[in-house]
């Protein structure tokens, strides 16, 4: 039977490695941490925003509204 220290050795070594990387190259380490949090935030942030009362903005119109009247022929500026 393996001892408790042997079972947790990979986790301890990983923790030490991450600690060393955070000290030696913090920009790369913390950018990886923030990148790893992305999928978690994708799942958790929208429900939290909904609970706090966030209402999404209405969609931007993609067409110009056509007036509800007959079209007049264009006159002027060499259109005769």
From TrEMBL:
Q: Where is this region: Disordered?
A: 59-80
Keywords of the record: Membrane, Transmembrane, Transmembrane helix
Record field: compositional bias (Pro residues): 59-68
Q: Per the UniProt record, which residue ranges are transmembrane?
A: 27-45
The record, for PANTHER family, names: OXIDOREDUCTASE 9.5 KDA SUBUNIT, PUTATIVE (AFU_ORTHOLOGUE AFUA_5G08980)-RELATED
The name of this protein is NADH-ubiquinone oxidoreductase 9.5 kDa subunit
**Species, as recorded:** Gloeophyllum trabeum (strain ATCC 11539 / FP-39264 / Madison 617) (Brown rot fungus)
């Amino acid at each position: 039977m393996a001892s408790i220290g042997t079972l947790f050795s990979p986790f301890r070594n990983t923790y030490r490695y991450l600690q060393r990387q955070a000290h030696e190259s913090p920009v790369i380490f913390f950018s990886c941490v923030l990148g790893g949090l992305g999928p978690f935030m994708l799942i958790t942030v929208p429900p939290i925003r909904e609970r706090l009362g966030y209402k999404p903005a209405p969609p931007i119109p993609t067409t110009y509204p056509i007036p509800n009247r007959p079209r007049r022929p264009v006159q002027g500026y060499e259109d005769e």
